[in-house]
Design goal:
The protein has a domain of 123 residues: Beta Barrel (Thrombin, subunit H), CATH 2.40.10. 0% of the residues lie in helices and 42% in strands. It is built from no helices and 21 strands. The strands form 6 sheets. The chain has a 4-stranded antiparallel beta sheet with strand order 4-5-6-7, with no helix packed on it. The chain has a 4-stranded antiparallel beta sheet with strand order 8-9-10-11, with no helix packed on it.
Amino acid sequence: MVVVGAPEESVSGYAQAGSAYVFNAQTGALMVHLVDPNSQYYGEFGYFVAITGSDIVVGGDGNTYNFNAQTGILTSTQRSPNSQDSEAAGYSVATSGDVVLVGAPFANVSSDAYAGDANISNAATGALIATLRSPNIQYFGDFGEAVATNGNFAVVSAPGETIGGNSSAGRAYVFSAQNGTLVDTLASGNPQYNGNFGLSVALSGSVAVVGAPGETVNGEAYAGRVYVFDMVLTTAGSPTLAAAIVRSNPTGWLAAVAVVVVMAVVAGGLALGARRRRPGR
């Protein structure tokens, strides 16, 4: 199955209420059309989607919804326990096994605007397992911008966090997906101003991948890097950096650069996507 979100579609007269579509991966035939159970103006249901087995997770209107992929029946709803205006809960979603991970990168934490948070919930019941926050809470840290889970670990990025005076150098954090305990912190080997390490993340099996699309490579601004981590923990309890990937011919953003923002780890291989991006945040 393939799930495609259409967050700007109008539904029942509601502009940008959004919807999502489930297609047969072999034939392209439409199987199910999903809509927000609470369609509303600018709800943007379908902004992010995820699928595992027969479960589909769709973010929108500040909530996250689980559907049966075969029938389209709603099975559970995840609601932010710290609901705020414009927190963007459901901006990023991931699911694996009985775990649903939802990012809210625009949430305020204490007095820090847009510090962000994320929530782990049970996929079947929608019950909250844990609320995650950055160990380095910062103004505009954007924790929850991108999320990934394999059912055991949860990876949550904070691409807006400052490191060593480099604003938006970015970090990513590894948590237990079962109880929310912090396991480790991931960071670029080349922290840079506007490097945005963590703007995209992917996780499958024992491999975690983190994109840093704003990093300069060989003098080319915004050429970007991809970092691959081995999640088989060392005796010190930390993931190991396995590789840092760059294009063989990195070019700057004006040449429609290779900014890696779409990633997937599939069947032991790594698929990387690149899209044009303006400089800065």
